[in-house]
Amino acid sequence: MQLYTLRQRAERDFAGALREAAEAGYDAIELAGLHGEAADSVRRDLDALGLGAFAAHVPWERFEADLDGVLAELSALGCEFAVVPSVPGRLHDVAAAADIAAALNGWAARCAEASLRFAYHNHAFELELGAREGATLLELLLSATDPAVVGFELDAYWAAVAGADPVALLERHAGRVPLLHVKDLAPDGGDAPVGEGVLVWPELLAAADRAGVEWLVVEQDHPRDPAADAATSFRNLTRFTS
After folding, report:
1. Cα–Cα dist 238/234, whole Å
2. Are 91 and 128 contacting, i.e. CB atoms less than 8 angstroms apart?
3. Whole-angstrom Cα distance, residue 29 to residue 46?
């Protein structure tokens, strides 16, 4: 589970949010900030619950300002992946892609030196910008980054919102997508628990398996009931993958 799903609980009771994730059935989480908690304290809570923090979303600004601190924190947490979750305000057009890609390449190389893997997570705009010109921003970033060190965390929901086919994206970029964010597309365009919307999960999950996806990461930006929705996603994913 991406812990952003439980962010309101995490803001007031981080250890309680971790317990909710474990109670919903998850044995691994992707962090989205520590909400003021120290990395060693979070690691103790994770270990006590039998949870692993396999990845963490780290804001662009933290990579820029304190890369050494980011690497130390993720190492203390036991993370395998460092993920840039977005680049707010920086990608107004495709002309910015080269500068963004250069930064991603540099940070990924430093992560590799620290035995961390690196990935970039998409939203809808990367698949919308440049689409009329024939090369989306996501495609430009993929072509301008080093596949040996820069992976991508494809968000199936945001791809669908942008009008792209997540199955086709997985097939086109097999081997570059170790992480897949799974949340469903509700008929009204909002997000929904896996299996409760319109995405065809058996087809999508089969494509993920063929593409070499290593982690299916449940996330909802706007859950109706965060803990209950996360549990529903877990149950449905278990059914789809059994």
Report:
1. 6
2. no
3. 9
Q: What pTM was estimated for this model as a whole?
A: 0.96
State the distance between the two ends of the chain, measured CA to CA, in whole angstroms.
18
228: which 2 tokens?
């209950």
Give me 32's structure tokens.
């989205």
pLDDT of residue 70: 98
Which structure tokens are listed for 187?
Answer: 């008929």
Q: Which of 121, 126, 149 is nearest to 55 (CA)?
A: 121
Confidence at residue 131, expressed as pLDDT on a 0 to 100 scale:
75
pLDDT in tens, 42-69: 999 999 999 999 999 999 999 999 999 9
3-state SS, 64-112, equals HHCHHHHHHHHHHHCCCEEEECCCCCCCCCHHHHHHHHHHHHHHHHHHH
- Say if residue 93's pLDDT is above 80: no
In DSSP terms, which residues pair with 84 in a beta bridge? 120
User: In the CATH scheme, what architecture does the domain 3-241 have?
Assistant: Alpha-Beta Barrel (3.20)
The CA distances from residue 106 to 99, 150, 159, 227, in Å, are: 11, 10, 26, 37
Confidence of residue 97 (pLDDT cuts 50, 70, 90): confident
